[in-house]
Each structure stands twice: as C-alpha cells, then as structure tokens.
Amino acid sequence: MLRTADSPLIRALRGDRPDRTPVWFMRQAGRSLPEYRELRVGTRMLGACLDPALAAEITLQPVRRHGVDAAIFFSDIVVPLRLAGVEVEIQPGRGPVFADPIRTADDVARLTAIDPARVAEAAGPIRDAVGIVVAELGDTPLIGFAGAPFTLAAYLVEGGPSKEHLRARAMMHADPDSWHRLAGWLAQVSAAFLSAQIAAGASAVQLFDSWAGSLSPGDYRAFVAPHSHAALDGLGGVPRIHFGVGTGPILADMKLGGLADAVGVDWRMPLDEAAAVLGADTTVQGNIDPALLSAPWPVLDAHVREVVARGRAARAHIVNLGHGVPPETDPGVLTRIVELVHSLDRSVARQS
Ligand code: 1CP
C-alpha cells in the first residue's frame, strides 16, 4: 500500500486534490477491448476468473492501453459464492445463473450453514492473480471489489438477472429473519473476498451495490445498509468506494455513516448536487453518462468538461462513468477521455 500512497487515486480517496484528477472506468477490463476477446476465446467467464495468469493479464490490459489511474481486478461479484461452493455459472450475454435459487427459509438455512471461511481457504487463485497484477503495476493502485449483499441477493433469490429484483425485495418483508440471515452471510462472504484481495496487495476497494436504487429509502436503511456496512467494515485502513445506480434518494445513506471514503454517483445527478448531499468528508466518483460514449467527440468533450467542473464542488473527485463501459464502446474513446481529463488539470493549474 505504501507503494501507491502518493498516487492520484489514493490521495483523492483521502480527500486531497492531487495535481492530476484520477480517472478509471467501471468495467474497463473485459468488455470493449479486442485483446480481451482474443484471450477469452475457448474459456468460460468463471474459468478465466480462476486462472491467475489470465485474470492478471485481463486486469492489466486497460491500464496499458488507456493510461488510467487505477486497475480494477478482473473477476465477478459471484466469484466468492463459487469459492464457497455455491453452484453458479455465468452465461454469455445473460449473466450469473444459479442452479438452486434461494427462495425459502430452508434454502437460506442450508446456504448460510456454509462457513464463510471457505472463501478465504479457496481464494488461492485470487491471491495469486492479485500478486501478479500488483508486481506489474508498480505505483499504480489496484482496486479490489465485491458485490454488496443486496445486489448479490438480487441474483441468488431470483436465480439469475432480473429487472426489478422483486423476489429479494419481497423476502425482506415476507420473512425478515431469513432476509437478515442471508444478507448477513453474504456480507461475510464479500468481506472475505475483499480481504483476500487486500492481503495480496489491492490498495483500495469498491463495493458494488449496483441495484440498490430499486429500494425505497426506508427499506435501504432497515434491510440493506447495515449489511453493506458489515461487508466494508474491518478491512484495515484501505480506502473504500461505495457504488450504486439510481441512488439519488439514498445518496447520504450510501456514506454508511462515514465508512465510505468515496461514493459513486450515476449520470442522473449532477456532481455538485451530489457533493452538497454528501458533504465535505466524502470524495465523489463519477459520472460520465455511458450513453454519450457513442456521441460525436465534441458532444462528449463538452460533457466530460462539465463533469470535471461540477466535480470541483466536492472535497475531491475521481472521474469515472455513471455505470459500466458498454461492451460496444470504441476503446479509442476511453483513451481520449483519459487524455482530456489529465490535460484539463494542467490548464487549470496554469490559470491559477
Ligand atoms: O472492469 C471489469 O470488467 C472488471 C471485472 C468485473 C466487475 C467489476 C466483471 C466482469 N463483473 C464485475 C462486477 C459485476 N458483475 C457487477 C457490478 C458492476 C456493474 O453494475 O456493472 C454486476 C451487477 C455483475 C453481474 C454480472 N456479471 C452481469 C450483469 C447481469 C445483469 O443483471 O444484467 C454480467 C453480464 C456478468 C458477467 C460478466 N462479469 C464480468 C464480465 C467481463 C462478464 C461477461 C462475461 C461473459 O459473458 O463472458
């Protein structure tokens, strides 16, 4: 961690305004890059995640190509469940699918009887991959990640991807005891996955609660926030980023009482408004609209400049997208955004 302590990303997470505004992209690994598609031929997604040399190489590709200020570890939110022994596959073009959805109190009891320590025991390939990555990255930080309990439960309870996550939201109210047992167990599983990445050299972590925006603020506070807090607590001094989509109404809650050093903001809320809600003790991350990645460059250029300008209202800003890179994105556009963000800092420095 010392190696990366003065990097723009880690400084911004601590609340400094480094000379260069850090920029990275959610889902920068394994999406739009032709060199990724080439490497993945003949290997299933979870197989790639558990092959240390392959996962390390895919993690490093976007750093080499775009000059981003951080790597995000190539893996998936369901990998720790697989390490715990849960039967899950990632279907191309669809996403995670579970052989046995967790719907009843008995299902929850059976699942949560698995000792979360199994994740740490089975995480050898994760630690090996992280080790290879950090040795190559030098002073560029690696961000480790995990899925938040609610977003993981949205897949587990449904059995696969869903739009409104009705079954998970129903369980909270129909059987709150089972819900809390499930979410509490998922928090331990995600914490074990984060700890493995940190132990092997990750310099920061991000908790993805991608689907938290489907919850009412009352449900978020009662049924979800305490478990997300547990997933991110007890990781030592490693800085933490907390991200969700459509979280405008629960943005202040996403701070998790100050545990999150940075909160991710999607494209729906201007960053100066987000900064006013989050206050002076939280860094903002975001919020280029992924839809504009396919717009003519002058349109995207103006949008990125506006995002950076509004981000100045926060104590510090990490430039990112409001959600992941769409798979059909032209990678050259991402490189151009990195160059633009870095050049804006120099032009502001010259003026002052
Ligand atoms: O930069 C990176 O791509 C890093 C690796 C990464 C991350 C951070 C992957 C690889 N997945 C994730 C996290 C993840 N996985 C999230 C949170 C981030 C987000 O909101 O985008 C979520 C919700 C998932 C679940 C998931 N896994 C989906 C979404 C399904 C849905 O509900 O629409 C999908 C399609 C996957 C598979 C997956 N994960 C990653 C890749 C490269 C792929 C596609 C693999 C393939 O089809 O071969």
Can you describe this structure in just a few lines?
With 352 residues, this protein is an alpha/beta fold.
Description:
The strands form two sheets. The protein has a seven-stranded parallel β-sheet. A two-stranded antiparallel sheet has the order 2-3. It starts with 7 loop residues before the first helix and ends with a helix. With 352 residues, it is α/β, with parallel strands linked by helices. The relative contact order is 0.14. The protein has a single domain (2-351), classed as TIM Barrel, CATH 3.20.20. The mean pLDDT is 96. It has helices at 8-13, 34-40, 45-49, 52-66, 79-83, 105-112, 117-122, 124-137, 149-158, 166-174, 176-199, 217-232, 271-278, 297-311, 331-351, and strands at 71-72, 88-91, 95-98, 142-147, 204-208, 240-243, 262-264, 283-288, 317-321. Bound molecules: coproporphyrinogen I (1CP). The site of coproporphyrinogen I (1CP) has 21 residues, from strand 3. Coproporphyrinogen I is lined by residues 27-31, 45, 72, 74-77, 90, 92, 95-96, 145, 151, 161, 208, 210, 324.
Topology diagram in text:
Layout lengths: L7 H6 L20 H7 L4 H5 L2 H15 L4 E2 L6 H5 L4 E4 L3 E4 L6 H8 L4 H6 L1 H14 L4 E6 L1 H10 L7 H9 L1 H24 L4 E5 L8 H16 L7 E4 L18 E3 L6 H8 L4 E6 L8 H15 L5 E5 L9 H21 L1
Parallel strand pairs: 1-4, 4-5, 5-6, 6-7, 7-8, 8-9
Antiparallel strand pairs: 2-3
Helix pairs in contact: 4-8, 6-11, 9-10, 9-11, 10-11, 11-12, 14-15
The structure holds coproporphyrinogen I.
